[in-house]
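During the reporting period the student researcher (J.K.) took over the structure-prediction task from the postdoctoral fellow and processed the backlog of single-chain submissions. One of the processed entries is reproduced below for the supervisory committee.
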Amino acid sequence: MKNTEGPLVSIVMCVYNGEKFLAEQITSVLGQTYGHFELLCLDDRSTDNSHQVLESFQLKDARIKVFKNEVNLGYNKNFELGIAKCKGDFISICDQDDIWVPTKLEELVTNLGNSLLIFSNSELIDEQGQKLPGDLEKCLKLVDNPGYKAFLENNFVTGHTMLFRAELRKSILPFPDNLHFYDWWIGFAASYLGNAKYLNKVLTQYRVHTTSVVQQTKKSLNTRATANARKYTQTQAFAKATFLAEPDRQFIEEYLTTKKQAPANFINYLKCFVFLLKNQKELFPWYKKGMLSKINYLRKQCV
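J.K. obtained the following C-alpha cells:
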C-alpha cells in the first residue's frame, strides 16, 4: 500500500532525447511505496519524442509536471532550474534512463534522520536492463558522512542516488558558472553545512550505455590532463562558496596551489607530498590499504 502522507518530496528529472528508456523510468517512479511526491520533468529541447512521452504520463497522473525549456541549457543548468521549481520539503534527483527500486523514496526519507542529505548505492545494468558486474560503491568508493575536504579529491554523491532537504537550496543555488558536476557541488555543500549520510542499500538500477550523459562526459575526459583540469576548476568553485569560513577557504586554496605547482620541480613535489600526507585522513577517507600503498598513492597525486 502506498504511503501518501508525510513530507512532500520533489523529484527532479531532467530529460534530453531520453525517449528510449523514459517510460520505464517514470513507471518505476510512479510505483514507489512512498507516494507523496511531485515529479518535475524538464525537457531540455529534445529532438526525439521525449516530450510526447512526458505529456502522455502527465495526463495520467497529476503528480507529474512537465516543462519545456525555451533553449537548451545543458544538464547542470537544467537541474538548477528544476531544483529552483521544487515545492517539497525534500528534493530527489532522477535520471531519465534508470530504474528505481519500489522502496527507494521510502528508504531515503525514513533514514535521512537529522542529515542534510542522504545517498545510496546502485547496481549497474546495461541497455537491455541486464545486470552488470559490480555496483556503484565499487566504482566510487562510497563512504558515510565524508568531510568537506574529501570532496576536493573525489565525488561520493552521485545525483541519481541523492535526497536532500529543501533548505539546502539557499546555499547551492545558483550553481557556480564554472561548475562541471552539479552533484559534486551539492555533496560538497551538504558535507560542509551538515552531513551527507550514506545508506548502503541498492535503491537504483543505474543504466550504463554509450549515449548517456555520464558516458559522454567520460569520453571527454579521456586524458589525465583533461580530468585534472576539470577537477581543478570544480575545486575552484568550492573555494568561492559563500558559505565557507575563511580558514576553510584558505585550506582549499592551499590545496589547489600546492597540487598545481607540484610538477614544476622536486621542492614543490615534496611540498605537495607532505601536504597530502599531513591531511590524508580527511582528503582520502576511503583509502583503507596499508601505509606503503598509501604513500605510493599520495606520491602519484603530485606528479
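The committee noted the following: Residues 116 and 193 are 8 Å apart (CA to CA).
J.K. will present the remaining backlog at the next meeting.
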